[in-house]
Amino acid sequence: MFTVGRLAQPNTIGEAYRVLTEERDAAILGGCAFLRMGSRKISTAIDLTNLGLKGIREHADWLEIGAMTTFRMLETDPLTSKRFDGVLVEAVKQVLGVQFRNLVTVGATVFSKYGFSDLIPALLVLETEVELANAGRITLETFLNRPSGKDILLRVWIRQDGRRAAYRSFRNSASDFPVLTAAVSWLPGQGRIVIGARPSKAEIAVKASQILSEMDFDGPKIDEIASIAAAEMSFGSNMRGSAEYRRELCKVLVKRAVAEVAACK
Amino acid sequence: MQIEFVLNDKQTVWEVSPDEFLADTLRKHGLLSIRKGCNTSNCGLCTVWIDGKPTLSCSVLSFRVEGKTVTTIEGVSEEAADFARILVAEGADQCGFCSPGFVMTVLALKRELTAPTEEEVVHYLTGNLCRCTGYLGQMRAVKTYLGVTQR
Prior knowledge:
By secondary structure, chain A is α+β, with helices and mostly antiparallel strands. Chain A has helices at about 15-20, 35, 70-75, 80, 85-90, 100, 105-110, 120-125, 140-145, 205-215, 220-230, 245-265; strands spanning about 5-10, 25-30, 40-45, 55-60, 60-65, 130, 135-140, 155-160, 165-170, 180-185, 190-195, 205.
C-alpha cells in the first residue's frame, strides 16, 4: 500500500509541473490501480482532476483524448469505439471488468509504458501522438523509445486517417494480463504491425510492416509476413509464458490480424 | 481532509486522509456490504456506483468522490432485494461473500445495456468473481431478472 504525505490539486498545468519537478518523491495520480499494488512513499500526490483532461473530442484531422479519460470511455464513446474498425474497443475490452475500466486512465497507462498494456499496441499501430507538459507533442513511438523522465502526459492525439485496423491478444484466462498482443493497421502503402507484451513493451515490427505496406493481401504473403514479424521481434520469458511460446503465438496473432484487415479492405 | 459528497441520496461530509481508499472509508462508516476479496483490483466484491458507474471502491482514493454521488447496495435496497430473491431461488447464493458486489454490477448492467446478448452479459459481469458457484446459477438469475426467461 502506498502512502501520501500531502495532496496537491493544482488548477493549472504549470502548477502541476512545478510541484512534480520541485518536490522530491512527488507523483502524478492516474487511476491508481497499479500504484495501489506497490508501496511507494509519495511526498506530494498530484491530482489532475481540475485540469479538464477527461474527455474525448473530435477535431478536423485528429481525435483528442484527455489523459484522465478512462478505458471504459474509450470503449463506449462513439468517437473512439466506432473508429478504426473498433480496434480500441478490441484492445481494452479484455482488461479485467467494467468496474476496473471505469477507473484506469489512458494517460497513466501510456505514460507508464507498461509491457502488458493492451491499449499501447492499439495506439501505436495508429498514427498517434502524445502531448506532454514539458516535452510538448511527439509521436507515441518517440515517447516509448525515449528514456523516462519527469513530465505530465496531458493528451493523446490520434490522426483520423481512416486506416483499417485489427487487434489480437492471447491470455491464459479471460480478463487476465495478456501473454502476447498484436495490432495491425493498413492504409495504401502504410502497413504497420505492432507486437506487445513480449513481455516487454510494444514495438513496431519494421521488416514485416514494410512488406505489409507493399502487399496486395494474397494468402501466402500473409503467412510470410507473420513469420517475418515473429523472427524480427525479441521475446522473453516470464510467469505467463516462455519466449518460444510467445514467438509461436506471434505468428498466429499477426496472421489473424492481417487477415482481418485484408477482409475489411 | 474533508470530503463532501452524496452517499445513497444523502448529503455526506467525512474526514479522510489523502491515501485512504473508498472501500476502507465506507466500511469504517458501517457500510459492511463492501468487501475486499483480492487486493489486486480484480474480484469486484467492492463494487459501488460513482455517479451511477460501477467502480471498484478498493481502488478509488476517497478524496476523488468529492462532489460526486456514491451508491452502495444499501442505497438501492428494494431493487437489490428484487434481484436477490431470484438469485437465491436459483441456488446461486452459497457463502454470499461476492453477492453485494455482484448485485450492484447486475443492477448497473440493467441500466446501461439495452437487450444485451448472453455474450454481452457475460462480458459485463467479467469483473465479478465467485469462488463457490461456477456462475451458472447467477446467469440463470440474470436472465430471469432481465425478463428473458419466465419467473
